[in-house]
Structures are given as structure tokens and as C-alpha cells.
Amino acid sequence: MREPAISLHHLLGLEGVSRQDIQILLDTGFRFREVLERPIKKVPTLTGVNVVNLFFENSTRTRISFELAEKRLSAEVITFSVASSSLSKGEGLKDTVRNIHAMKMDAVVMRHPSPGAAVQLSQFVDAAVINAGDGAHEHPTQGLLDMMSLQEKFGHLEGLKVGIIGDVAHSRVARSNIFGLLTMGAEVTVCGPGHLIPPYIEDLGVGINHDVDELLTWADAVNVLRIQRERQGVGLIPSIREYRSQFGITNERLARHKKSIIILHPGPINRGVEIDSDVADGDQAIILDQVLNGVVIRMSVLYHLLGARVPQETN
After folding, report:
1. pLDDT single digits (tens) 5-44
2. Residue 108 is part of which domain span?
3. If I label 178, which of 70, 88, 310, 315 is the partner at 20 to 30 A Cα–Cα?
4. Considering the domain boundaries, does residue 194 fall inside one?
5. What contacts 134, CB < 8 A, 6 or more positions away?
6. What's the rounded Cα separation, in Å, for the pair 297 and 69?
7. CATH classification at residue 176
């Protein structure tokens, strides 16, 4: 049976994506979980489809997750190394992408340090564009996999109370989570030091709380963000010890609330800073579920953006 179609030609962000489209992507992700449980973890859905991965920032988890998703769907995959490309010789993004597109690529997955780069790319090419993170703007597939992990745990997103803790100002993950969760009917509150909470964030429809213990009393689940030193330039926290004391998620802090709070983390984890190892590795954390769901939700996105280009379907 063929999946319902989504209305998207690209996945540039979750802002403005409809509830119906998000739910279709999540539902298809759950169906692809069955593929990964087979002895042969591969389907011919995207046979003959060419996908190029353009990663202009260092990445391990997201790049590997996309490559696995593409190969599980039998796509032809090229991963583009910026360090060895003509970009290091001064060629612009527009010319580089047009040259790649002339090689008949069907989709481009791009991570770029500049906000809006994926939108700009979509104006240059006919291929489907998937934003794998653009600066501090959005990271839509991370938002989708976080929602999938929450839906898997709770059975629903409507009415769920989700806290986002940490460096919200520099987090593309936070923005995609906010847009997606609010669209799906969840409640969202952000928490962190005042200078790491952007002043406009309340306009998006979220609550703000600077007391992590109050947030934990309210929340069903919390998504713990890392301190992004590479985006801050100069450190914006007085000390690791002080940040951990005020905002770190520890077993001692969780035990005071006497309820089960689900813990998410987009990675990479700064153990002993925003979250302690015994929490990250504990029963309340679903961090490894996020990793698995990252592959299948990216399979879902690729399937819906590219599946119509080829006759094969999944079983």
C-alpha cells in the first residue's frame, strides 16, 4: 500500500510545515523501522536515484545517518568533501551546486554554517533539497526524529509538555523542535541562562523559565542542549561548574522530582556539563532511540521527496 503524499518539494525547515505532513513523515518512519529489523536491511525504493551529501560543517552522526538512510533505500550516494573541493579554491556555492546538478543529481542534502543556505540552494537547482542544518536556523530532520522518539514513548504528541534546556540562542535543534512540537499540539517551555535565551523566542508561542527545577516539575520530557562553544566565539558561561549546578541534568536533581521524566539529547553530549553520564546512560534517557529513529525518519523524508521519481515501492 502506497503511503499518503506530502505537499513538500523540499525539506528546508519545520516552520510552516503542516500537521498532516509531519504526521505522514512520522508514520512512514515507524513503518521503516520494520525494514531495519530484517536480515537484509535494504529496500529497492530509490534504485536509480542519485543523492549528493554536501557537508560544509563537520558532522559525524547526521552525515552517517543520512548515508545509511540513502543506502537502505538503494540510492546512489556521493558525499562531497569541502576540504578537497573547488570551494577551497574560491569557487562559489552557486557554481559548485550547479556543476553538481549538471551531473543529474536528484537530491541534495546540505549542512552549511550560514542560515538560509538551504533556501538559497533550492533556488539554484531542480533537485529536492534537504536541510541537514543551516547555522543557528533549523535542523528539520533532527526535529522530526525527536518528535518520533517522543511519540514512540508516549503514544501521542498532543498536549505533551516538553522542556528545552540550555543554549537555545545558538541551537537550530531548538527551533525545529519548537516549530514541529507546537504544530503537533505539544506545549513547549525553554530554560537556560538569560543571555542564552533569545528575546524573540516567546513570540513563537513558547514559555520561558530560568529555573530548571521548576521546569522539571512541569515537564513530561526535556530535550537537553549542549553548550555550543564553536558558535559562541567567546564563552558565555562563567564556568562549567556553575552551569552544571544551575542547569545540569543530574540523577540527584531528577530524584527530587519523584516522577519519570523522559530525557532527550541531540548530541554530541558534553558529559558532566549539561548532563551527567549516569543520566545519559540511564533508563529515563531515550538518546539511543533518537539515533535509530534518525535513520528511519531520514528514510521517510527521502522516500516522500523522491519516491515518486521511481516505480518501486516498499513492501
Report:
1. 899 999 999 999 999 999 999 999 999 999 999 999 999 9
2. 19-137+293-309
3. 70
4. yes
5. 110, 111, 112, 113, 114, 115, 116, 117, 118, 172
6. 8
7. 3.40.50.1370
